Amino acid sequence: MNSTEKRDVSLVGAALALTWANLSVVAPLWHELGELLRLDETAMGAVGGVGGLAMLLSMPLWGRLTDRFDARAVLIAGQVMAGVAFAVWGAAIAWLAHAGASPQLNFALTAGLRAVASFAVGGAAVASLPLVAALGRSAPAQAIARFGAMSSVGLVGGPAFVALAPGLASTTRLELLGALTAASGLAAMRLPRPTAHPDHGASAVEPLPWRYLGAMLLGLFVVNLGLALVDFGSSYYAVDVLGLVGADAAWTSGVGLTVAAVASGGAQAVLGGRSGWRVGATVAVSGAALLVGMLLLLAARTAPLAWLGYAVAGVAHGLAMPALQTALLAVVPPRSHGRASSGSSAALGLAYIVGPVLAGLLHGFHALGTVACCALLGGAILAQAPWVSRSVQRGAAAVAAGEGGP
To answer: For residues 35 and 235, is the Cβ–Cβ distance under 8 A?
Structure first.
């Protein structure tokens, strides 16, 4: 990539980083926010699940808008809407806690606002991947890896915001990050408009090649479900396994998730988009790394060993994401990249429906339930690697030959 392409891709990555920071900042605070709202683990899991459902349901709409119109415009709209909604969500939680509202009202308002914010996040997430591939068209695999590394800063930023500013109110964090996210959407207006393909818009009625996409979408779902379980289980792990309480638990959880996100971004920056790396082999290594990371968490009884487990899990995520996203776009023609990207974002949304709910249920069953489940997911990713390899080889060959359809 040339310097202009790197700059533009980095700007998209920075914008998405703020979006992910809004999502990740609540993970180490999830237990605290539940106490403020007087909601138990199951209710808080449902709040997170409602947000994931809203994101999932928004994907077909955003994907069609991206393919038919302009990925840049969809990104800007999604960022601004998400930023405003997250800031209002934080203010609403503070007001509800101060007013002593009933748990039922607390749940209804917080779940509703979370849904609105997540719906908008869907637009930014869907538009970003095809936009990055277009902006970094000289080396799309490297562009996607660079974008992934940049956006992973948001996974660092949220927990780091908790760890480095322990005296700041939880709701104030949400308000500040929301305002910055809206501002980043406006800053994205300086990006060039991507060049439209001659048949741009024809993909609205063209069927996608699901026989090739299925392997990548399932892989993305499993990888992101593991991430969701790690995120939403981290505060429970700090309390029940490491024996910490209050601010100490939130700080330890925040550091662990920061370490995981740094490891994920580092893996994407250093290893992502390397030519000669086979997708199947990369996915297999990712699954093995997630399994090892969870085994470390199962054995850990001190924070440093737990942080090492989070780091290894972060490397697993950083290896899998750019490999699967690049493969996803390789098996569809450029005119359908928006809808294919909506599938990738839908996998993320579905993972964040199942993840918070499953984390709450597993926590009620056993303190190490989420960790054990993530270890099983690592094994599932490892077993799936051959299917991914076959699908990307055949799908890319079909695109090169000009074939389409399911």
So the answer is: no
